[in-house]
Design a protein that fits this description.
This protein has one domain (17-263): Alpha-Beta Barrel (TIM Barrel). Helix 2 runs parallel beside helix 3 and helix 4 (117-131) packs across helix 5. The protein is of the alpha/beta class. It contains 10 helices and 10 strands. Helix content is 40%, strand content 16%. An 8-stranded parallel beta sheet has the order 3-4-5-6-7-8-9-10. It has a two-stranded antiparallel sheet with strand order 1-2. 45% of the residues are buried. Bound molecules: NADP nicotinamide-adenine-dinucleotide phosphate. NADP nicotinamide-adenine-dinucleotide phosphate binds at residues 23-25, 49, 110, 140-141, 162, 188-194, 197, 212, 214, 229-234, 237, 240-241.
Length: 264
């Protein structure tokens, strides 16, 4: 499988999403978020993940505008926080204004709203239909039961489910459900938030390919067709994490990585 930094997956609404993205959770609004996004764009990432909850939409948007990269070349996700579902339209407009990038590529329901999974999805559909400012809508942190609830009523199918995913917590049942329903699985915390980078099972595979632990974790995602959004606030790590297109993990090692979740 020949993949490169521009490789994209086709979403069920026909739009395309880069397999590799850049996560911005816990990067503070201001120079930190501004610089990190500029570093990521310079390193070749063309997909940025933010959320109203992260509080950094303003600096993320400013970096995208200042980068000089055409808007249409960058895929930008932001998210609606569950307690805001009641005021979804107003809150969306705040995110839209803060980002100030003309349109949002992907707007996600950040977490399911207990007892309101269907209704909150219908609110997202309404914003999508009436605002003309969003290219695609999807969900995050939804389990299979909640996805089924949405699919029962959806006029517009969610294009992605963004879930916590790495070899250490891979859920093949969720992945298969998404595949069958033409929903792309997107991995957040793909680097295990840094917690498992020194695990011997992982470092053994990394040494074999002469790559770092983070590069193995990210390559595993994209080889499985899972969109992945690693975060770093360090320019050298941002660059390192994008350097995953000059090798391929063998089927045998992919299976080993798939099974890491069984041992924790
Ligand atoms: N939908 C949701 O509910 C949800 C939840 C969580 C996250 N997300 C999204 O997913 C993104 C990624 O997840 P995450 O931020 O939880 O964690 P992550 O990407 O799994 O890990 C980030 C951690 O790994 C470190 N790191 C990055 N590259 C490294 C490298 N090459 N070598 C060593 N350490 C490295 C970072 O350090 P430094 O930062 O110090 O550089 C940071 O501490 C988020 O930023 C956010 O956009 C979504």
């Amino acid at each position: 499988m020949k993949l490169d930094i521009n490789s994209k997956v086709k979403l069920n609404d026909g739009t395309q999403m880069p397999l590799l993205g850049f996560g911005t959770w816990q990067i503070r609004n201001g120079e930190s978020a501004y610089n990190a996004v500029l570093w990521a764009l310079k390193a070749g990432y063309r997909h940025i993940d933010t959320a109203k909850f992260y509080g950094n939409e303003e600096s993320v948007g400013r970096a995208i505008r200042d980068s000089g990269i055409p808007r249409s070349d960058v895929f930008v996700t932001t998210k609606l926080w569950p307690t805001d579902a009641i005021n979804a339209e107003k809150v969306f407009n705040r995110s839209f204004e803060k980002l100030d990038i003309g349109y949002i590529d992907l707007y996600l329901m950040h977490w399911p709203v207990p007892g309101m999974v269907k209704k909150s999805w219908q609110r997202l559909e309404k914003i999508y239909e009436t605002s003309g400012k969003i290219k695609s809508i999807g969900v995050s942190n939804h389990n299979i039961r909640q996805l089924k609830c949405i699919l029962d009523v959806a006029k517009i199918k969610p294009v992605v489910n963004q879930v916590k995913c790495s070899p250490y917590n891979y859920d093949p049942t969720m992945h298969e459900f998404c595949r069958k329903n033409d929903i792309v699985m997107e991995a957040y915390s793909p680097l295990t938030r840094g917690n498992m980078l020194y695990d011997e099972k992982l470092t053994t595979i990394a040494e074999k390919y002469k790559k770092s632990s983070t590069q193995i974790l990210l390559r595993w995602c994209i080889q499985k067709g899972i969109v992945t959004i690693p975060k770093s606030a360090h320019p050298e790590w941002i660059t390192e994490n994008a350097d995953i297109f000059d090798f391929e993990i063998s089927d045998d090692d992919m299976r080993k990585l798939d099974n890491f979740s069984k041992n924790v």
